[in-house]
Write a structure and sequence with these properties.
- The structure is a single chain.
- By secondary structure, the chain is α+β, with helices and mostly antiparallel strands.
- Helices cover about 40% and strands about 15% of the residues.
- The protein is built from three helices and five strands, in the order αβαββββα.
- It has helices at about 1-30, 65-70, 150-189; strands spanning about 55, 75-80, 100-105, 125-130, 145.
- The strands form two sheets. It has a three-stranded antiparallel sheet, with helices on one face. A two-stranded antiparallel ribbon has the order 1-4.
Length: about 190
């Protein structure tokens, strides 16, 4: 008799367990889903979300303040002074550009998304975007190059500036030489 009683008790516990599980399942059938079908559906990010950096090179003046503010040194900037007669244009804020930005790289793999580079920018050309899907198979692909000049153009700008400085130095030397020669000719008279 006790074997039959235990059998019925075990059967009832099995049925009861299934009923409890089905109650939980049916309860969630009529509740709106809290999960989304990512990547087909994407959630709206908060307005102040910090994601991938972007640089608007039309507004960049090459002041290097963003690179100096970066705590992990993920921003590399190289500039070349413009020579007289070159017009680099104005930023959207009306600031006159004086430097060619020959290199502006951001290693986003190093970036800690602190946003400290955004605030010191006087032209507000660097900012955080809402792009958060930028995974890559190769680490080198996470170095974003924002400079608009090609390598040949950057080299040309460097050569032009060096040539200009050499000419300026030669003029200064020639002027100093004539200045030292003039008193000698004056002494002879």
């Amino acid at each position: 008799m006790s074997g039959l009683k235990q059998y019925l008790k075990d059967t009832w516990q099995g049925i009861w367990t299934v009923l409890v599980g089905m109650k939980v399942t049916f309860k969630h059938l009529f509740v709106p889903a809290v999960t989304i079908q990512y990547p087909d559906v994407k959630i709206n990010l908060p307005e102040r979300a910090r994601n991938r950096l972007y640089v608007n090179m039309d507004d960049c003046i090459g002041c290097d303040q963003c690179a100096r503010a970066c705590p992990v040194d993920c921003i590399e900037i190289e500039t070349v002074k413009s020579i007289p007669g070159e017009d680099l244009g104005l930023t959207s804020n009306g600031k006159k550009k004086a430097l060619w930005v020959t290199k502006f790289n951001i290693d986003i793999a190093k970036c800690c998304y602190c946003q400290l580079c955004v605030f010191p920018c006087p032209t507000e050309c660097i900012y955080m975007t809402d792009v958060y899907e930028f995974s890559e198979y190769e680490r080198e692909n996470l170095v974003y190059k924002f400079a608009t000049l090609t390598e040949e153009e950057a080299e040309e700008k460097k050569r032009n500036y060096e040539k200009y400085m050499a000419e300026k130095e030669a003029q200064k030397t020639a002027a100093a030489k004539t200045k030292t020669e003039q008193p000698k000719t004056g002494d002879n008279k």
